[in-house]
Amino acid sequence: MLQNTRWTRSLVASMIAVACAAAAGAASADDAPLPKIAAKKPLKVGFAQTESNNPWRLAETKSFKDVAAKCGWQMVMTDANSSAAKQVSDIRSMIAQKVDLLVFPPREEKPLAPVILEAKKAGIPVILVDRNVDQSLAVAGKDYITFIGSDFIDQGKRAADWLIKATNGNAKIIELEGSTGASAANDRKKGFDDEIASHSGMQIIASQSGDFARDKGRQVMETLLQSHPEVTAVYAHNDEMALGAIAAIKAAGKVPGKDITIVSIDGTRGALEAIKAGELGADVQSSPFFGPISCEVAEKYAKGESIGPWVKVSDKFYDKSNVDASMKDGY
Ligand code: AHR
Which residues of the chain are in CATH 3.40.50.2300 domains? Predict the structure, then answer.
């Protein structure tokens, strides 16, 4: 075990710097063509999930299980239990098993980039779904086939536009951020913060990560309600944290949807029910159903069709005006 001395700290710092430089260098130095998808059935496909602690993740995993037989995919599935390091080692083990195709949502933007380059070097094609990686470390269309996913910046902007309208441009906002370093958290923050910046009455009074998890969202909200009792609105980067915040608001004796206006992202059944109950104001959908579209994109790529670097998924929007008709969308 390494002791926490100045020498070991500097050794670890230089090891990290070398690893980052190697990853960045490899991204720009490797001009080899992308690996092809083998023309065979079944195709051994590795799907490395980030965690399974919320309905969105469960729906995403299920959508791959459901499409596998139809697509001729034999799935190898792992669960990283909310650890980027575990997701990296899960993917390395899939590379060692020589899967024919890797499909995964990178938990965080930077730590998952080097393993994409390792897969390319091993001749294994990669499709990223749901979240993307830092494009200075691995490049869509060059180091991996494509990124299939929503426009997270636009989701944040749509949440902001609804909140500005619902509060007549006046709100003291607590922002519950997703997992630190995840593209979904970085971009949903950017889209929201940039949009409200030009409205002087809209003020973000606190912004903290709840790691996209219900209980963490509840705990963070409990603490922030004590330090910021003046709060009038909450923007949660996902539904689980919004539902956690609603529980915290009720426990503090306030009425969600009345004392505090809440907007969120995902479109889970729980969130749609919260809209019906008047506790959640609005919800931007973020589809977790990546199985069928991944199969379609992989088949097109295997046939030699050209695929753009971003296959954009479009998202609906829910509020009290359409929630009854939209309950069937919930998962
Ligand atoms: O990357 C998408 C986000 O990750 C979803 O909003 C969230 O629920 C999930 O964990």
Answer: 43-150+288-314, 152-286
